[in-house]
């Protein structure tokens, strides 16, 4: 494997020599075989020469391409290990015999490449573009080399660098926070209702988040000493990362790993709190939804009711909706389907509908101006390939 390019050159040399040899022998062989036929028709020498060339060129090209190229390569691809073991020794012998010639050819080719101002690249080390890797991934899925889950994981990695924190955050309106003036007992009471491990700590309101508290630390203190119930939450505050909401989730994850902090507060362009992101939120962008024993009652972001109806959480991204239903919704001002509906019809009420393409979006649950759930009815279900992948992995049966 360390000399793979040298052996590739040996293969190319063998193919070229074979082709030239067949061409050199082809015409005389055809003339010899067809000489009785030519004599019977009393053809002139020039006609015999032309016919011999055409027949030889056509026949040898056909045989060389089919028997010398296509068929062997197909067999080698499908039976790579067996073919490698069968031809390894003959290949090594040929390589050693032709070594000086192969080195000369490789050196000459590198020289020509440098003349054009390019750097020679090992043929087997040439990098694939993202699009090429996606094609390879899709073909591997179709052939059964990888399963649907593996395909989804790798595909999510491609999407990972393109996502920003704002797209995966828990929005400000849904943040459950504790004020620094509260005591440990208040924190414990809140946990009985919310079932979270970490809570942001505010100084008056959610636009002034000073850190976070880990409920485990509070509980351990209270269990050891009940008098700690009266201790201010401010005593347990730990730092959080505060970053702009447009930061790439890859960069945010690196920062959170470096600082060993599990929660980040996202700041909008006006300096207020836009939302929060946890390490779990980021990891879920690759491996999918992670549910624990407290997540049993959570409604999935995308739930299929029947062949023609899907329930969407209002926080589902517009890009996901476009992929799922083959639509072209484009709104630079909002990221979610709920936000898009509000921009289309600000005074929307429960039961109102909006038509887009061959889909009907119906608001089925609101909380103030927050659209919680939307029912999408498609007149004719023809999901795109991306939609099929998304449906298989994220749409759960009702």
Describe the protein.
It is a single chain. This protein has 13 helices and 13 strands. Mean pLDDT is 83; it is low at 381-398. The protein has four domains: 4-124, no CATH class; 130-160; 165-287, CBS-domain (Roll); 302-397, Uridine Diphospho-n-acetylenolpyruvylglucosamine Reductase, domain 3 (2-Layer Sandwich). β8 and β9 (309-313) form a beta hairpin. It has 398 residues and is of the alpha+beta class. The chain has helices at 4-40, 45-78, 80-97, 99-115, 130-143, 148-160, 184-194, 215-224, 249-259, 279-287, 318-325, 337-344, 385-394; strands at residues 170-171, 178-179, 198-202, 209-214, 241-244, 263-267, 273-278, 302-306, 309-313, 353-356, 359-367, 370-378, 395-397. α1 (4-40) crosses α3.
CATH architecture of the largest domain: Roll
Proportion of beta-strand residues = 15-25%
Structural class: alpha+beta
Would you tell me the overall average pLDDT?
83
Radius of gyration: 34 Å
Can you count the helices? 13
CATH superfamily of the largest domain: CBS-domain
Along the chain, the helix and strand elements come as HHHHHHEEHEEHEHEEHEEHHEEEHE
Largest sheet: 6 strands, mixed
Low-pLDDT runs of 5+ residues are 381-398
* Top CATH class of the largest domain: Alpha Beta
Shape type? elongated
Residue share in helix: 40-55%
Tally of DSSP β-strands: 13
| Total domain count | 4
